[in-house]
Amino acid sequence: MAWRAQESGVGYTVYLHGMAIGAAGLSVQRPGIGEAWTYFTPLLRRVYPLTMHRLVRQLLDKHSAKLEEVYAACKPENERWLVALGFKYVKPDECKYPEVFKKLTPDMKLMVRQT
What we know:
By secondary structure, the protein is an alpha+beta fold.
């Protein structure tokens, strides 16, 4: 997944003993607008939550510096974590990237981090 995301941004994969246990990235959707994504296994979430948070925060700060806004689709269980990363909810009429709303499922909300 991370390799594919690098075609339009950056992507990273986390390995433990040769097995992928997580991936995260930031894809550029249009000039100045990015979309953050993650996939973490339960093992990574349970055993290394602080390391995961610090690493994602550092990489998000580094790679979003040239972007105006970074969007992320949010499921209820990830809301607190995205707020801790600096994201806040956005309404469709406030969104500079309205196409992202098409990707959301009914249980998801859209959050934005302005840089």
